[in-house]
Design a protein that fits this description.
The structure is a single chain. The protein is an alpha+beta fold. It is about 30% helix and about 20% strand. The chain contains 7 helices and 9 strands. The strands form 3 sheets. Strands 3, 5, 6, 8 and 9 form a 5-stranded mixed beta sheet that branches. The protein has a two-stranded antiparallel ribbon with strand order 1-2. Strands 4-7 form a two-stranded antiparallel ribbon.
Length: about 240
Amino acid sequence: MFEDSLIESGGRLRTKRGATTSASFLFQLALMVVLVLMPLLFTQALPKTQFMTSLVAPPPLAHVAAAAPRRTTTQIQSIPVHAQLRIPSRIPDHVQMIEDVVAPAAAIGVAGDAPGGLRQGVLNSILNSSQAAIPKVAAPHRVIVSRGVIQGMLLHRVQPAYPPLARQARIQGQVTLQAEISRDGSIQNLRVITGHPMLVPSALEAVKQWKYRPYILNEETVEVETTITVNFTLAGS
């Protein structure tokens, strides 16, 4: 024992450790091979209980359909009462699906130049659509026109007389009137917007006699609502 622990004696002693290790490894390897190959070589030793179960095929579908109980469908209709639908008293077990039958489309015709053919039908449809009358948009009863546009439509103008009292008092200015022009161009429904009280009567009397060209919209004459301004100016002022 003491001889093995010394450095000088290292390598001089020989043991059988290598041979023992190799023999043990070979024995364990052979044992593992035997354990793996035994189930493959001796198959009769496997349990037979799993092969004893019998397999039963399902019955044909025709017998299953015959044996299945038939469901009776009850169609419940909602009867309108006083133009209102009444709620059914109970909910049916099975809802019956109703298929809508689509009527066959009318024959358009055979392509070609034959009478009633596709080409003739297309031409007839184009001609009929071109000859159809285009609906006209109804013109409004009355429109509002600016003062500058209505001045260019004036045909007959009567100059208002200057009131003598306003002339003596050196009163001048503008009188603005709200007016409605009828379909024939005459003045109606004059209303005063602004103006001196001494100048208003003369302006109303003169504007009532004015005449305008009829206002045409969408090929129809319509009434016009506008404002008219009358100026009163003293000469040399």
